[in-house]
Design goal:
With about 80 residues, the protein is an alpha+beta fold. It has one domain. About 40% of the residues lie in helices and about 25% in strands. The protein has a three-stranded antiparallel beta sheet, with helices on one face. A hairpin with a 5-residue loop joins strand 2 and strand 3. The longest helix is centred in the N-terminal third of the chain and has 12 residues. The chain is elongated. The relative contact order is 0.15.
Length: about 80
Amino acid sequence: MDAARTAGVYHRVMERSEHRFMVRIWLETTAGSEGQWRGVVDHVGSGRRVYFSAMSDLMDFLRLRMAESPQSHPADEAAT
């Protein structure tokens, strides 16, 4: 690939919007029940956290955060 095409590919990659999330899911059980799946999601850039027991709540949180401008993360700064 020539230098001009390589620079164009690199430029497109650098412009992508990216968000980082940490998702934890666990099964809560009580005596005599099958249990219920629960979870928590953290948006790494903003520090916002939501607990959920329905996938629709998780998806709503992801959509809301993805609509925002991405936040820079210290690891991203060190990598550049």
